[in-house]
Amino acid sequence: MVEDSRAIASLLQSNIEALPDVRCELVVDMAGAAQLLAQCAERFFVAILDLNLPDAPDGEVVELVQSHDIPVIILTGSVDFAKRQNLFKRNIADYIEKNQLAGVLSAIALVERMRANREHAVLVVDDSAAQRAYLCSLLHNRGYHTVEAADGEQGLAMLESHDEIRAVITDYNMPKMDGMEMVRQMRTVRSPQELAIIGVSSAAEKGILARFLKSGANDFLHRPFELEELYCRIDQNLDMVRYIHQAWDAANRDFLTHLYNRRYFFKHAQKIYESARQGKYEIVIAMIDADHFKKINDTHGHDVGDEALVAIASTLEKFGAGRGIIARFGGEEFVCIRILKAGEDPLQCMQGLCAAIEEIDLQGPDGSPVPLTVSIGATRELDDSLSEMLKRADEAVYQAKQQGRNRVVML
Q1: pTM
Q2: What pLDDT, on a 0 to 100 scale, did the predictor assign at position 22?
Q3: Which of 7, 162, 275, 345 could be cross-linked to 280 through a Cys-Cys bond (beta carbons 3.0 to 4.6 Å apart)?
């Protein structure tokens, strides 16, 4: 932030730094900004700038910051239509009226939004290279990563190869495949709850808005559009996707470890089990129980107990990546259904997991080591149902405990 008013700067800085994982570096003039950027420009994802500084009265600091490829939010006084137009000609992310409390709150919310935007990519589909470049530039100013495609066929291919895409902005008239047909096909692989799609067109054809929406688009913009309208539409649609994702996570993931919960496991493990019954692949189911967990809580406290569960969960997640489902069943108990590779020995596989958990380096508040081990009960016998497999694995983990813990028993 570059702001020479100490009162405004202090208010903004303290509130921005209250955001998780955000630091705010404050300087009071353009010279200070130049020195800071020369040292560590790559650290900054957004800049908040006063247009009228003692050593840069005409907004020269904007060009300085933008030369380092950093999006810019302008702090200004009251804004009329002409001034607003001139501000956006500077290729900024947005402006904030700093003389009002609402403006300060808006600045904080915008910083938080632009940090979140960095986690998402927007696919821009348009046969005009100039229009694509223009839209990508606007989106970059708002903190988004962008992916480009020149027609509907390329757009579908890009969506398939870029999992991080959360929104699409598409033209209507394009060669090979128009925007509406592309949207229809995109909706066969990504729902409106997973992907926001905004149609854009300058065509005067009647009914185009309704047809885009009926094809599966979330929203529509007529060209030419106001920059603030574009930003509001993309932000609001991505907010909706984000809120739905958060709600889905709350329903399907464990709050502490972020592994899947029992509800998700039973819903999706059944599909894996049924495919195994049909001979499509072999599976192993394992119950994983942390050893002496009560002792960890009693000796080192529940905070360390939580750290232990998170560390075990992280190791389990790496172990199961792309090959099945790992879930927390409750307390210190986890469950895994794993699709075996051809020729993979499930006992050796589980013993490797057991050893990986034993190698976790965890320390108590006084720096003393906190040993972590697990007992694992597993089975590859399909039995008559998923429930029967789980019972067999549960019996096996009980035997592992009885035999001394920190071991694998296969039944």
Answers
A1: 0.73
A2: 92
A3: 275
